[in-house]
Specification:
alpha/beta; Arc Repressor Mutant, subunit A; 2 domains; seven-stranded mixed sheet; 12 helices
Length: 366
């Protein structure tokens, strides 16, 4: 089905778990240059009765909200019964990034559905304004240390805040750890890294992976320096946890892009990408460079919000190497003696252990 004569991206797809749960993938244009997915799940639970569950909500933009409503109508047509925001029973948030929970500002006044999120992302939903103010201050400091000039830093901070104005704080009904990491047949696994409170959600033989595992693309990484329980180290360890916990998964449905049919193979591909990127960063830092300079070498010249994402991604890989004794700060004396903030220049440390990278590379071999 095509909604309002828009692109074929808006086709609502139906899947089914091995125990008969109906699953609808609802595509959403969350921002002008970014598409995402919400999921509607319909099933009967011995514990909870009839369930109509929405996993993630889109960004809250006008287009995202419209696509969500249209997707629910498409599911209603296929099911032969009315399914709407008003008769949802639960909303489960995979993680606290606005393109996944921002639609709550629109949805909450229209439903009595119980809303759940992991504890480490709770304040993103309930004290959103506080969260944005704190992160903006940390981001300003980080961009300074990364080597972003003052005028450019102000532009990037304005970009960061511009995408956050769609949402206002809403109350949450339950948190996952307090609920035993499950809701009836839905099981949750905490996978910090891409986001502090990220979870993947298992229903029978289907995994809803949020942004933790995506088809075709690698989920964005930012340094833990900005937010605790993020960073590449947490993310790679969470990949290990999913590989073990996700045995028997037939279908993985992500927050962006299409389905993943071979979860172990996709996990290996993601590890390989990060291992190769870490090796490349080490090679570049044979000579001292700032995080901004490394981001240019890794990703080329970018525009708009992608500039900020590239600086964070490069910083996550540099942080990972620095924590493992592979790098040193080349201009330490300048930092020690300057009264003004100084851009940090990193350099590979000769003879330092690269065991962590070797292990990661070995795990990517056929």
């Amino acid at each position: 089905m095509t909604v309002d004569n828009e692109t074929s991206r808006l086709v609502v797809q139906r899947f089914e778990s091995n125990s008969g749960a109906a699953i609808y993938k609802i595509p959403l244009q969350v921002f002008s240059n970014l598409w995402g997915n919400a999921y509607l799940i319909l099933l009967e639970s011995h514990e909870l009765g009839e369930l109509r569950v929405l996993i993630d909500t889109g960004s809250g933009s006008a287009e995202s909200n419209r696509h969500l409503e249209s997707g629910l109508r498409a599911a209603s047509d296929q099911e032969g019964r009315s399914i709407s925001l008003e008769n949802l029973t639960h909303i489960l948030i995979t993680h606290g990034h606005i393109d996944h929970f921002g639609g709550l500002s629109y949805i909450r006044p229209r439903t009595q559905a119980k809303l759940g999120v992991h504890e480490l992302d709770l304040r993103n939903l309930t004290h959103y304004e506080e969260r944005i103010a704190v992160v903006a201050r940390r981001l300003n400091e980080y961009l300074r240390e990364a080597g972003v000039p003052n005028d450019r830093r102000a532009e990037l901070l304005a970009l960061y805040q511009s995408t956050k104005r769609l949402y206002h704080s809403v109350p949450v009904d339950f948190t996952y750890e307090a609920s035993g990491m499950r809701l009836g047949p839905f099981e949750m696994l905490h996978v910090p890294g891409h986001c502090a409170g990220h979870v993947v959600i298992r229903l029978h033989d289907v995994l809803f992976s949020g942004d933790h595992v995506l088809d075709q693309i690698s989920p964005h990484q930012s340094p833990e320096h900005l937010t605790l329980s993020t960073g590449l180290d947490h993310y790679l360890k969470s990949l290990e946890a999913v590989e073990s916990w996700g045995q028997g998964i037939r279908l993985t449905l992500g927050g962006h892009k299409g389905p993943v049919d071979d979860l172990p193979s996709r996990l290996k591909d993601i590890r390989r990408l990060h291992a190769e990127r870490l090796s490349r960063v080490l090679e570049m830092l044979a000579e001292p460079h700032t995080i901004v300079e490394v981001s240019h070498a890794l990703f080329g010249e970018l525009e708009g919000y992608n500039v900020l994402l590239a600086i964070e991604e490069a910083g996550a890989h540099i942080e990972y190497l620095h924590e493992r004794g592979c790098l040193e700060i080349h201009n330490l004396k300048e930092i020690q003696h300057s009264e003004q903030p100084v851009a940090i220049r990193y350099q590979s440390l000769p003879g330092a252990s690269r065991a962590g990278i070797v292990t990661l590379l070995n795990r990517t071999k056929p």
